[in-house]
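Standup notes
- DV: blocked on the single-chain target, sequence here:
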Amino acid sequence: MPLQPDLLEILVCPESKKPLVYFQLADEAFLYCPASKLKYRIDDGIPVMLINEAVRVSDAEAERLMAQARDLKLVNA
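- DV (later): unblocked, structure below
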């Protein structure tokens, strides 16, 4: 279930307070913060915006995610 555009406009990373990039891929959906390198899962259409539940990605994974976001022309990428 895709997230509503109006929700995406107001959500920010709880750690950095910066905008998020929304990935809706064939096998998963998540929100990613390039500033903090945190990946937030989405459970049943509900973003889990808890820092202690997020996954901090490596520098290499962060670069890969941002390249993918640019290729997919995702917002905030």
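- Follow-up: The chain has a mean pLDDT of 94.
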